[in-house]
Amino acid sequence: MSRGKFITFEGSEGCGKSTQSKMLLERLQAAGRKVRLIREPGGVAISEKVRAILLDKANTAMNKECETLLYMAARAQLVEEVIIPELEKGTILLCDRFLDSTVAYQGYGCGVPVEAIRSIGLFAAKGLQPDLTLFLDLDVTEGLRRRGAQLDRIEMRSMEYHNKVRNGYLSMARQEPGRIMVIDGALSRDAIFDLVLARVEKTLSQ
Ligand SMILES: Nc1ncnc2c1ncn2[C@@H]1O[C@H](COP(=O)(O)OP(=O)(O)O)[C@@H](O)[C@H]1O
Ligand SMILES: [Mg+2]
Predict the structure, then answer these.
(1) Residue 37 belongs to domain with CATH number
(2) Can you list the residues of the chain whose pLDDT is less than 50?
(3) Residue 5: phi, psi to the nearest 5?
(4) Distance from residue 18's CA to the centre of ligand 2 (Å)
């Protein structure tokens, strides 16, 4: 049996990751494909517990190294329990955020050395890389406006922080144009989905 494909959605808060990943899940299911959607941090019991610590507004003392390692810990468990076994079964695995989020938020956003994040990331993900990453690029103010009033511990950070994250994603996309596709998140849901689907079909046919 051939290995599945690993497709990730990335971008700032409110850019449309959940919307587009669900639309893609439904479309691929309707086409009879073996497909599964998971989200990071979380997805399995241990990782969901780590997620709760990460997003808890009471954890004001958490430093950036602790934060980085917790994201990696949640990821390591998800990779072991879900991502690798599903890919081995031939599943198309859609993931709402992955390692690029840690590079963008803790690296470009918080100033943790990007090279350190990449090497810990290789360890946590056992060298696994997405086959395709769809980065939905959106103005930060518009993204937070779409999210509304209920912001979690990470979302509450300053505009300057969120702009660093966005620019981090843009530089990663310039460094890896073959893997990371930049999509204008200000387009309509359907216009974005047409672009997503065209690129995903190309990846699935490879
Ligand atoms: N292309 C779009 N144009 C306008 N609003 C959108 C678009 N895509 C998603 N939304 C809305 O914006 C909000 C945030 O979208 P969501 O998919 O949850 O973003 P994310 O998962 O990236 O944080 C939701 O209310 C969603 O319905
Ligand atoms: Mg979401």
Answers:
(1) 3.40.50.300
(2) none
(3) -120, 145
(4) 4
